[in-house]
Amino acid sequence: MTTKRREHIERYVESLRPFLSRVGLKDIEHRHDEGELRLTPVPHSSLPVEFVVVPFSENERCFGSNDLVCVSYSKPAGEPQPPRRDLSFIANALLKLATPALVEALGERRRRDPRLWNLDLVTLLNRGLKPAAIINVENRGEILNRVISKVPAAVVSKRPFYRSNLDHLIFVDEDYDERTAGDSTVEEGRKKARVLERLVYCAQDLDSAERLRHLDSEIHAHGYARKPELVGKIGVALGYPECCVADYVADHRKRDEIEDVRWLRSFVESAERHRDQPGTSRHFRLFSSWTNWIVARIAHMPFFEHFPCSPWCPSTLRHNHRMVEALFSKEDVPWLLSLLSVSFFAWPDGELVPFRCGEPENEVIPIHDVGTAWREAVSPRYQPRLHDGEGLLPAAPHELTALRGSSRGWEVKAAGTWLPLGSDKSAPLVLPFG
Fold first, then answer.
1. What is the rounded distance in angstroms from the CA atom of residue 337 to the CA atom of residue 101?
2. By C-alpha distance, which of 323, 167, 155 is closest to 239?
3. Structure pTM?
4. From CA 319, how far away is CA 407, in angstroms rounded?
């Protein structure tokens, strides 16, 4: 970025600072990335969101806009919805302070690839590619009706819910409201406005949708661990491979990590179990790109929702090949595989550092593009979790050239020296796809 562009952006952020104390903030941090200005309130606990300012576009989905910019925000999964008045106050200030010079300084925004625009569960249901789906929808009548009108058959959960910090669904009454009296971090009596959602149970016919709602209601009433057979029935009803459903049901991992990290850890352990099977070569091989559910989630590829029972699951490979043949042209498959072949270092707090793998040789995996392997097609929920690796890895990301497993855990090579990533739970998980 040129000095002049940087000055325009910093001047814009500086002009916002006098407004911050009005909503209990001390400062705001910012970063600029290809047409997007991202702003994080300080302290983040007072307003746990990230604001995004981009040049105006009629197709942009946003919280507010004028003829210069669009303003949106995202919040970490499980965090309560901040008060709308505070969000509106900051958003309106961001709109009011925007100038043509700021828009020029922001530059052209990186766009989500159009080949992913029309991928959603509703489309898959209507095309008969999925037998059923459970969709989270904001608890507003017009939004719920919009989804219901587009699928063959649907019913909604009887009660709305919000997500806890660990992604538990907390079902509540329609008039639910929560106060924070006694919480020293916020003004006493201030309401935590949460965005309530409902589950929409979609299927090819109404009876199937009702059965899906009944099964899911039983699970939420009794807990996953106490009703594993119902979890299995739902997985099969949603069209997931039976081997993957059985593996998911058998995994009674404690719910003390965010959902994605729990699944990542289980996925890595499944690779070890697979290698321990009789008759299986212990020679290291990369995980199959066709089982890369991490990329599928980050890029919002709903044709690939389920958690594979191993990184080489034959049923998952067949399922995803069939979906790709139905949804993409032959010319698009190399592009899709370039996304699905991205590898990751993954930390317990959810941070992800992307990289790419070469073909293993003598148990050593060449790696490159650490921290820069991929930024395209990232859904807003995951954008804050992608990291360039600076400060997280034992050497500068651009210096890393290879990766290998050892009795002490994974090691990376930099400047001819092998450096440990660690062996305890604070060390990153390694997911090498190719």
1. 39
2. 323
3. 0.71
4. 35
